[in-house]
């Protein structure tokens, strides 16, 4: 086939293969429109729902880093993709766009940092405001006055405010229990177990000595399956006697160590607890909770200061934890919880019991508490606050537009497009608050141009006001990571220029 003919059809002839010249451009646009579709779908609900893989991953990254602002990050990325599409259509090379965006984001982080206010962890008021702002966009927002202080207290109990740089959220155990209402949620300084107490005789132990065992209190089994036929009644009796003696021996050792509350890890191979053992433990007045999950062991040990005991020979008094009170609490008609409080040498852990009338409410409450905890964690990581309500984004848009005037050539153009794209957050906020997005954003722009850095959209009053006075604040880390993650994602989407179809 002659060269000319191939080139005329828009094909290049390259080392014996036909290459479609328009394909990279098409692929870019199809990726951009996929990402934009998600952003548009997600814009109406600033909440955790993602559609397209890239965007979902992006949302996850934001969730892990900051724990809040998962929607903002997708919406920003969508707006940036939109800007990319326009720039690409004007024939600007993707690499130039990508590099200018990087420049813009570096400048943006600088601007954000300069407009933030430092915050002290001892300043409870500020922490509460941030937690409340995060809870306001959730389904359980009417309970924010209860959940916000709970989240702040929980974080404050598990860290040392003077030295902490991050919060390990694994130290805050969230326990979901059906029944009651969200008003019944509570923060328990100690340990809460959803398992039932096995022996009904003992449901309250004061000055408890708590042992956590990982072996079974039941007759031992052989390693291989085998059957023993017992023909003689005397032998049968002996088997039963041996079993009793074996179990009694185990339980005497437990009693000897002074243990009054026994937690037993779930066993797969055989019953962790035989009826006989329950009977003996009951006589000894030892409270028993069985079926402790494998993954809860670490938390329990940290909370109570116990050590898990893997064999009866290690069951010594120093392995036990001590607590003021271990009791089974009745929750008005909806099941029971075991609470262990007043630990003598507690690790820095805390439990939150989440109640709700149905599964959906509980899960929503759990997610919301998690978000609020993350917001406080962000403040521990980076102790600075920034106004919410679209104020930082508008400020960024203005400053980046100014900055773009100092650049030359294509870069200026791209940074300008980046700046305009950031206005999508305030306009989405306005739209979702039922305001006219265009006039609201214009007004915001004016306010910021006059130097009101903290003017933002006040969703509660349906207008524009100084957002800091309204106490709508968010941690600096949320804004910064949203901006950087969104930009990184857009840059990586820009770099894709071909798709290989997989079966």
UniProtKB/TrEMBL annotation:
Cellular compartment(s): Cytoplasm
A UniProt-annotated Pfam family: Cpn60_TCP1
MF GO annotations: ATP binding; ATP hydrolysis activity; ATP-dependent protein folding chaperone; unfolded protein binding
GO cellular component, one term: chaperonin-containing T-complex
Keyword rRNA-binding assigned: no
Alphabetical keyword list: ATP-binding, Chaperone, Cytoplasm, Nucleotide-binding
Main location: cytoplasm
PROSITE patterns tied to this protein: TCP1_1, TCP1_3
Record bears the keyword Ligase: no
InterPro entries: Chap_CCT_delta, Chaperone_TCP-1, Chaperonin_TCP-1_CS, Cpn60/GroEL/TCP-1, GroEL-like_apical_dom_sf, GROEL-like_equatorial_sf, TCP-1-like_intermed_sf, TCP-1_chaperonin
Protein family membership: Belongs to the TCP-1 chaperonin family.
Name under which the protein is recorded: T-complex protein 1 subunit delta
